[in-house]
Amino acid sequence: MSNYTGFAKDRKTKFGSITSISFTEEHLEELKKYINDAGWVNIDVMRSKEGKPYMKINTYGLENVESQAPIATPAVEDDDVPY
Question: Are 80 and 7 in contact (CB under 8 A)?
Fold first, then answer.
């Protein structure tokens, strides 16, 4: 199961491109379900076919991920997902 979270946005600055990420309070509460044994939540910042950033929770190595509810707010519109 794929779990998308938060929002990602590219910003152009005089120092180069910066990808800003944002989470709602709801996202942060849901992310607690994905804390690994080392105490981290891993999130991959990826790019759609059009180059737009989006984020996906990296569940590699987590047990019982299928039984956990996905985060409700998708990071991108369905037509922006690269598959």
Answer: no
Rounded-to-integer distance, Cα 19 and Cα 71, Å: 21
- Nearest residue to 68 (alpha-carbon basis) of 76, 57, 78: 57
3-state SS class at 23: coil
CB 11 within 8 A of CB 17: yes
> Which one-letter amino acid corresponds to residue 75?
A
Report domain extents, the chain.
Answer: 7-63
The contacts of residue 47 (CB under 8 Å, 6+ apart) are: 53, 54, 82
Reported pTM = 0.63
pLDDT per residue as tens digits for the range 28-67: 998 999 998 889 999 999 999 999 999 999 988 887 655 4
